[in-house]
Amino acid sequence: MAGADGDDSLYPIAVLIDELRNEDVQLRLNSIKKLSTIALALGVERTRTELLPFLTDTIYDEDEVLLALAEQLGNFTVLVGGPEHVHCLLDSVRLLAVEACVSIATLLPQPDVEALVMPTLRQATEDKSWRVRYMVADKFSELQKAVGPEITKADLVPAFQNLLKDCEAEVRAAAANKVKEFCENLPEDSRENIIMSHILSCVKELVTDTNQHVKSALASVIMGLSTILGKDNTIEHLLPLFLAQLKDECPEVRLNIISNLDCVNEVIGIRQLSQSLLPAIVELAEDAKWRVRLAIIEYMPLLAGQLGVEFFDEKLNSLCMAWLVDHVYAIREAATNNLMKLVEKFGADWAQTTIVPKVLAMSNDPNYLHRMTTLFCISALSEPCGQEITCKHMLPVVLTMSNDQVANVRFNVAKTLQKVGPVLDNNTLQTEVKPVLEKLVADQDIDVRYFAQEAMNVLALS
Predict the structure, then answer these.
(1) Which InterPro entries match (predicted)?
(2) Which residues of 48-77 are buried (b: 16+ CB within 10 A; e: fewer)?
(3) pLDDT per 10-residue tile (average), the chain, 462 residues
(4) Residue pair 53/43 in contact by the 8 Å Cβ criterion
(5) pLDDT of 411
């Protein structure tokens, strides 16, 4: 409802609209009873295009509010522009009916649910308005709990299949989002059979859906099916789907899979996981397209946390180090940030034995870009590694590199000293860092002199 408060004459309308959102039921009721006033002020077009969508997006769960809203909408024909526009009202009324069905079904005995509620729900799952079908999909888990196991098996399973195959992407995405919850709530004695016979085939189709929001919604929940279906079914039926999603062109799909690897790890174990999914991760990490490599680097800290330090050291550590010497600067930069996050996750002791020696060894690399990467890494790692490791292991290398033949390396020494300075004690700054910066302030290269002087000023060594 944008713009209702852009005109002073509409200020009272803006107040009424705010009351529609209020947590106080009485305030909402009062505002709903004045809907015709709001509609008259907005005019027929804005009522159709703004007020009605606002109402249907802000569906209320109190029966008293729903009843008042339904009564008001019954008198709205003129306010939306006459009979030729009445269809937009009917969408809202049918949306309210879906909401009401959920509330009513929780109160009625099973035979009455079948006789009184299900006819409306069956119509709603096949409604010509995608908004109504979306509402059914969005409320599906609540419906499932309300109607009980027998009606779920007879009616909701086929209805859910249809929603997963709906022609509208919004509906498919809403249904895909409910896959895990729906499967969890199935009757235990027939759960596996229903999933394998009716749901899995729909899920397989959604993995290759043309809409990325649908694929992303599925990827956020699909890993949870592994705990429901168990080890054998996961390995045979779900792993190929995870693999396909891990290679999906949409970054959000890949992220959702990597974010939930721990669900699968608990079911099939780290060995099986590494044999099946890890090769795909490694393949993406070495992809010819640098943006694909970049995406995997950004997921690496998350992945490391999922898999644990031992597994990471065995399978992925060398990959992270290889990125530091990538020919694309953006990859080298991301790899440096990745190391910092890994140290924050696994700790300074791990860094000292696993990462720092390899980083420092690059200071002697014949390629000056790789030598500069050493400096970038030290800048990033000094804080998470702490004073002792920085002073004892990293600082001596930085100071030695102040004699590098390449001016770009020397001015990056000055920038690195400025960055690590706050981690060092005052004695080290005065006795080790200051003499080197004073030497660089007198360097023949103008950039080296500039950054050295800047470092001295920032560290108060001038």
Answers:
(1) ARM-like, ARM-type_fold, HEAT, HEAT_type_2, PP2A/SF3B1-like_HEAT, PP2A_Regulatory_Subunit_A
(2) bebbbebbbeebbeeeebbebbeebbeebe
(3) 51 70 79 80 82 67 64 65 61 68 78 85 88 91 90 94 97 97 94 96 97 96 94 93 90 84 83 80 84 85 85 89 93 95 95 95 95 96 96 96 96 96 94 95 95 95 82
(4) no
(5) 95
Q: What's the alpha-carbon Rg for the chain, to the nearest Å?
A: 31
Q: Give me the CATH code for the 1-105 domain, please.
A: 1.25.10.10
**Domain-wise residue ranges, the chain:** 1-105, 347-462
**Dist CA 334 CA 429 (whole Å):** 29
Q: Which amino acid type is present at position 131?
A: R
Q: What is the token pair recorded at 262? A: 């721990």
Question: Which alpha helices (H) appear in 290-355, and where do they start and end?
Answer: 290-307, 309-315, 317-323, 329-346, 348-350
Burial of 446 (0-12, 13-18, 19+ CB in 10 A): exposed
The domain 347-462 is classified under which CATH number: 3.50.50.60, 1.25.10.10, 1.20.5.170, 3.60.21.10?
Answer: 1.25.10.10
Residue 172 has φ and ψ, to the nearest 5°, of -60, -40
Cβ pair 16, 55 in contact under 8 A: no
Q: What are phi and psi of 220, to 5 degrees?
A: -75, -15
Torsion of CA 121, 122, 128, 129, to 10 degrees: 20
What is the reported pLDDT for 59? 53
In degrees rounded to 5, what are phi and psi of residue 117?
-100, -40
